[in-house]
Amino acid sequence: MPTIMPVADLRNYGEVLREVGPGKPVFLTRNDRGRYAVVDIDDWNRIEAARALVTELDRGRASAHRNVNPAKTATCSPCVPHPVAPRSQGTLPQRGYAPESPRTPPSHAR
After folding, report:
1. Is the pLDDT of residue 91 over 50?
2. Entry pTM
3. With the C-alpha atoms ordered 35, 27, 58, 74, is the resulting torsion angle positive or negative?
4. For strand 26-30 and strand 3-6, is the pairing parallel, antiparallel, or unpaired?
5. What angle do CA 98, 101, 102 make, to 5 degrees?
6. Residue 88, helix vs strand vs coil
7. pLDDT for the residue numbered 89
8. Residues 6+ apart with CB under 8 A from 9
9. How high is the pLDDT of residue 60?
10. Share of the chain above pLDDT 70, in %
11. Is 14 strand, coil or helix?
12. E strand or H helix at 60
């Protein structure tokens, strides 16, 4: 259960800070609406690391969209286009292809 307190409780900030711990943020309200969150510094660092990771993944996804040759891709919304091996090459099937029929696309790509 999250800890929710009115912002007026910050008059006794020591009491509010005792409630904060790893995985235990304190949410402060003003006029019965959530306005602030006080989080443990380790939680904050994890949040920032996750934000940086998502930013890098978005950059990679955008780069993949810019560098894709539409003639050699199969798209499945909302997925990123997946490369399709030319039929003349004896390459290994992509992940998701059935081993007994390596040229059959996954059901979500049809």
Report:
1. no
2. 0.53
3. negative
4. parallel
5. 75
6. coil
7. 46
8. 15, 16, 28
9. 87
10. 60
11. helix
12. helix 41-66
Distance between CA atoms of residues 25 and 32, nearest Å: 17
Rounded CA-CA distance 79/50 in Å is 21
Task: Report the C-alpha gap between 37 and 24 in whole angstroms.
Answer: 10
98, 103, 57, 50: which is closest to 80 by C-alpha? 57
Q: Bridge partners of 24?
A: 21
Lookup: tokens for 105 = 């696309």
- What is the CA 24 to chain-centroid distance, rounded? 21
Asked if 37 and 25 count as a contact pair (C-beta separation under 8 A), the reply is yes
Residue type, 67: N
Sign of CA dihedral 29, 35, 37, 38: negative
